[in-house]
Design the sequence.
């Protein structure tokens, strides 16, 4: 009987671009556009600049582009540097149950460039990588490392699979690439994740390990072909509640976890999307809302959001804490009060709100003290509803149905019901409130106009004029028609 | 309100949470059956016994312990009164968890509920 590694390798080996449904392909194109915008923004941050300075002259044959620069380096270092740019502001995308594009896009771009492949190959690599990430991630769920902290466990594997696919490996080489990469996870340490620059390495360094795994497999290096389900294997060591069988559920051309991807319209952890949508809805209706006249702001979130925020709730999030020698803007990517306050004062929440002049502005921190965050039970339960068919109640669900629910959810019209409510009380007693059940760029909405707006915003941030941006958008919209991605690279390097 | 009274209130909350979600809760929460030991270093300790997500409180330590939270009476009360979440109490070293790697996720979920989610 085939092992899970063998089934996964067969799936990756046989996947064809023509089998990807139009809906999934569109999400893939949105992911590409969103990720390039994210890289534009992230490339300007201090940790990104340090990584660039450190590795831009690294040895090896310079075959792959560092985006936003006119430089090339070896593929492993391009994946590392572009991956850091992609995750520097926590501004990319996430699927169920982890981040995806921060690795799958830079890795696919790198291999497509180095192998001189087409736009279709680029999208195939990305979407295959998303599927591998989410499937392996689900096999570890629930675990302490759910979400972005799951990336360093899984991203070496998705990277190796993308590489093996785009390098047109033989089946045996694909198996070895998975086996080797599964031996190279990195375990996230929360103390280094919440605050210091180290967090930007979360996906990028593991992705580099995946490139190395692929290089070794190409030469005949062997990895385990039974790495996932074995009692001393990957899943059992990485999770207290492992479900390796989930890796292969609905492993066909009908089930696409890429469809679960949410795009971030604001820098910061995913639970900030819905409350910031609410804040901007209020500001759209009341553009002259005076932040000096605010008495209090109440933010309601699902429990998953508040637990994540509380984990980051250290004194580094305060004005004084940010001055600590190992602290940085990164801690604020998790802090609801700072982000809400900055949005209300600046009327925007972009990479600019994470520059020194904004993060050390006492006015933002004073308003942040007026922001309280509450866990909302109904919103917490709504997250469960994301996976439950309309004809069933939550109390009908049995634990044994989980895998079936996941399979059905990703086959149908999956909606990610991670909502929020924001209530602003003014000193006059006037109240403004807004609520949402699904963030603007999450499954269930996936509104491309917001991705386009973000793309234009970040292209302008790094100095592109509107003509150049429009031409780039045209290429991205039609990337599957291009026999080579050199035109794209000319615009983004 | 004492720690015991607070825990009894939390036990009711836990049962309510379970009532709303039914067995679905077991999909995601590994502590559906568990003994959570609140090890109060300067006062009486308690065990929150959870059976099929219905909870009750008893004094002392009831074996087998699934999860042990350790802290002072003041810090436990802060958490149980919802003044500070479990996650914040943990990162700020007010409450410790025995066997961090294996128990931390359970602790977050228990902490979220006993801390007064609602």
Sequence:
């Amino acid at each position: 009987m085939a092992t899970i590694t063998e089934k996964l390798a067969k799936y990756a080996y046989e996947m064809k671009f023509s089998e990807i449904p139009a809906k999934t392909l569109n999400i893939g194109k949105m992911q590409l556009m969103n990720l390039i915008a994210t890289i534009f923004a992230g490339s300007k941050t201090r940790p990104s600049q340090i990584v660039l300075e450190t590795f831009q002259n690294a040895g090896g044959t310079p075959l792959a582009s560092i985006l936003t620069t006119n430089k090339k380096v070896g593929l492993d270092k391009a994946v590392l540097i572009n991956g850091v740019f992609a995750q520097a502001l926590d501004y990319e995308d996430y699927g169920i149950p982890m981040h995806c594009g921060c690795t799958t896009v830079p890795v696919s771009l790198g291999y497509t460039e180095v192998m001189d492949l087409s736009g279709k190959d680029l999208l195939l690599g990305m979407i295959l990588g998303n599927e591998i990430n989410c499937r392996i991630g689900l096999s570890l769920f629930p675990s302490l490392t759910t979400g972005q902290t799951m990336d360093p466990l899984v991203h070496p594997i998705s990277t190796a699979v993308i590489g093996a696919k785009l390098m047109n490996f033989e089946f045996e080489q694909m198996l070895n690439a998975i086996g080797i990469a599964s031996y190279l996870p990195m375990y996230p340490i929360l103390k280094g994740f919440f605050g210091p620059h180290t967090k930007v390495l979360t996906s990028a360094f593991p992705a580099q390990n995946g490139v190395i795994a692929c290089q070794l497999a190409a030469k005949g290096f062997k990895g385990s072909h039974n790495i996932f389900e074995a009692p001393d294997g990957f899943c059992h060591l990485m999770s207290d509640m492992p479900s390796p069988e989930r890796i292969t559920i609905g492993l066909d051309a009908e089930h696409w976890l890429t469809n679960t991807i949410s795009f971030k319209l604001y820098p910061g952890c995913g639970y900030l999307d819905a409350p910031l949508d609410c804040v901007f809805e209020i500001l759209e209706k009341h553009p002259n809302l005076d932040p000096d006249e605010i008495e209090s702001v109440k933010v309601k979130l699902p429990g998953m959001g508040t637990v994540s925020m509380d984990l980051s709730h250290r004194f580094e999030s305060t004005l004084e804490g940010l001055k600590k020698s190992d602290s940085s803007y990164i801690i604020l990517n998790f802090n609801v009060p700072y982000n809400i306050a900055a949005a209300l004062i600046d009327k925007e929440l972009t990479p600019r709100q994470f520059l020194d002049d904004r993060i050390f502005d006492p006015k933002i921190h004073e308003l942040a003290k007026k922001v309280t965050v509450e866990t909302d039970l109904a919103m917490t339960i709504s997250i469960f509803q994301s996976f439950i068919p309309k004809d069933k109640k939550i109390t009908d669900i049995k634990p044994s149905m989980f895998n079936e629910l996941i399979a059905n959810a990703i086959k149908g019209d999956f909606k990610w019901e991670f909502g929020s409510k924001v209530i602003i009380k003014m000193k006059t007693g006037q109240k403004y409130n807004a609520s949402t059940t699904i963030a603007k760029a999450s499954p269930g909405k996936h509104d491309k106009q917001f991705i386009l707006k973000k793309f234009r915003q970040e292209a302008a941030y790094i100095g592109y004029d509107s003509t150049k941006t429009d031409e780039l958008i045209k290429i991205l919209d039609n990337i599957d028609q291009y026999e080579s991605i050199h035109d794209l690279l000319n615009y983004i390097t | 309100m004492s720690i015991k009274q607070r825990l009894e209130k939390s036990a009711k909350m836990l049962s309510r949470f379970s009532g709303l979600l039914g067995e679905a809760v077991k999909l995601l929460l590994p502590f559906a059956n568990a003994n959570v030991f609140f090890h109060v270093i300067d006062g009486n300790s308690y065990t929150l016994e959870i059976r099929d997500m219905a909870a009750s409180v008893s004094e002392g330590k009831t074996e087998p312990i699934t999860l042990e939270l350790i802290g002072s009476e003041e810090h436990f009360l802060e958490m149980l009164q919802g003044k500070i979440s479990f996650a914040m109490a943990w990162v700020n070293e007010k409450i410790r968890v025995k066997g961090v790697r294996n128990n931390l996720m359970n602790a977050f979920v228990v902490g979220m509920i006993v801390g007064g989610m609602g």
Remarks:
- Chain B touches chain A at residues 17, 20-24, 26-30, 85-88, 91-92, 101-102, 104-105, 108, 112, 117-118 (CB under 8 Å).
- The first helix of chain B runs from residue 3 to 21.
